[in-house]
Amino acid sequence: MNSINKKNSSKKLYLLFDEIQKISKNRELNYFDLKPIKERTSYYSDKKVSEISPESFEMESSFTLDNFGSLLEKHWKNDGSDELLKLIPMISDIAKEFYNVEKQNTDVSPFIYVMF
Amino acid sequence: MGKNILGISAFYHDSAAAIISNGEIIAAAQEERFSRKKHDPRFPINAINYCLQEAFIEPGELDAIVFYDNPLRSFDRIIKNFIMTGENGLAQFEKAIPSILGVKLWIQDYVKNSIGTLGKIDKLLYSEHHLSHAASAFYPSPFDNAAIITIDGVGEWSTSTIGIGNGNKIEMLKEINYPHSLGLLYSAITYYCGFKVNSGEYKLMGLAPYGKPEYFDLILDNLIDVKDDGSYMLNTEYFGYLDSLKMTNDKFNSLFGGNPRDPESRITYREMNIAASIQKVLEYVMLKMAKYVRKDTGMENLVLAGGVALNCVSNGLILKEKIFDNIWIQPAAGDAGGALGSALAINYLYFSQERKLNPTGRDSQKGSYLGPAFSNNEIQAFLDRNDYPYERIENGDTRFTKIAEALSEGKIVGYFGGRMEFGPRALGARSIIGDPRNIETQSKMNLKIKYRESFRPFAPSALAEDVSKYFEMDVESPYMLLVAPVKEERRLPFDLGNFLDNDDDMIRIVNKARSDIPAITHVDYSARVQTVNILDKPDYHNIIKKFKEITGYGVIVNTSFNVRGEPIVCTPLDAYKCFMRSDIDILVLEEYILHKTNQPNYKDKENWKEEYELD
Ligand SMILES: [Fe+2]
Questions:
Q1: Which residue is closest to B128 within chain A, CA to CA?
Q2: Same domain, B416 and B309
Q3: CATH classification at residue B114
Q4: Confidence of residue B4 (pLDDT cuts 50, 70, 90)
Q5: Residue B37: CB partners within 8 Å, gap ≥ 6?
Q6: What is the C-alpha to C-alpha distance for residues B423 and B140, in angstroms, rounded to an integer?
Q7: Whether B380 and B482 share a structural domain
């Protein structure tokens, strides 16, 4: 990433942060409780699905830069987090800029365990 | 048809790979052992290559490849966390978002780039983080059915889960979710006491016996609310991990009356007391949870995994209270073990393979000796090529006797034999061993080998059949995950209170003999016991047996084969380097014995003391 691109990416990063702040202010949000609720008798929650199906391992399988946005959209629609959907284009955009999967871990030589 | 499955964990802490074939655990290893970077979190390409090679499996022959965690759901948590924390979260946001959107989400690309395939099903599978832990605890256990508890910092949203394993099935029943986390609470206090989060927790546990739990009520009144069933919630106002790059915040500091300890500064009574207090809180929660789970599930057996399950003091207490008839703990309880667990989950829950218990009644973890081994030919070639003088003793009996004799004379031995251990503890395949009767063993091992002073004593390896002669313990502890008291009749009078009143130099205290096996007895007379069964590790068992023939003691000192801050050695070259960099007297590489006094001058090319940092 050259320095101009770097600047653009960090600008996008702060735009996303601003957008998150807007959601944060505009909604009566409660993704989780911040303090104990002493009246409750137990703090365990039941797992939504206790039995594990083979499909559960595939649900979000094979996500790549190309389909990540649509999988995230599906996920947020499913769990009722519609207020987050407008973040997805920005998130996808930032992912494209920051994407940094190297061909190899260059500073670690492969096959060292047969090193001599 | 049996399935070949590769499991991978990466990008958070201690990445690893594991391979199973037809339900059998063939190989598992942490990346750090190959890359020589402690707790290496990078994509574990070396560990993957090793696993494939050990299993004689080409990447194209893999039926499935699975990642131990679902990064999309972790991303969901991260975004929602930033919405909850508002503007305060900026510093964490700037750090977290580029790393997750740039690297951590794209496991599939990493897999494709490194081995060129996603397996026969042509898609990467994801196992939920705590399901991976649960599977790592249940499937290798010797139980047909068991209750399952997993507890760690956080994985996706979960921080603790309760489940049931039955045959080849696992059901996940209950959970506690982020930000309420016993693991993060323990880590926050680890940080506050000046130790490294994710690795210093073990030190905090070792510090606890020096202190008094004076802050126990303070923690329960302010930081965590615990219900009778062991469920809990934290008051997040005191913690920094939600919205900063620190674990604790100013409010936490004022509650405990001061800033976190500077890692370089001396440990004081305050840290000892805080360590004792959080340890007591952890045990308080774990005991309640275990009792509830026993009652709720009706199961007689318990299996445990997740980073908190490495707390062998709390494990020892659950055992002592006899809440369950039997307990099994995954030795790679941290996230490295998630690689193994996710592969097992796919075998049984995705491919519905039949589960066969080990017919001997023992577990299927193979003693956790799941890493690389080196043949005598390879070792000889290495020694000859470098002109390192050695003596080869092919006869096992003679060799083990020779090692035992050296130990009984106070020599420190670097022992390298068989396949490397999977998990954080050295279990006699890559171990530095010594004489536990000798009061000097401890300080010599600390100062001249580990290059550190430690307030923690070393761990004992005892013959499984003799363990109750030394410790108040009548079960096996093959993975050093249980703490037990040294037998009453072996103890020497020692009043910690007296000591602390006059002197807070813990090193002097720990170096004072407290039993007839002083090198392994902690200040509260406890020991982190490894029992050695001849079925798991015959060579190591034999060394201890010979030591017993000479000295009358069926127990030796065992510490990991590394210098401070270095990953445990993997290859003969790593072992040789560590041997020459330290005051280890004798190096054993399978059938080859090397004496320090015979070795040529060793010129270190690397500036290793700076290379490795402290936990
Ligand atoms: Fe975990």
A1: A57
A2: no
A3: 3.30.420.40
A4: very high
A5: A108, B567
A6: 14
A7: yes
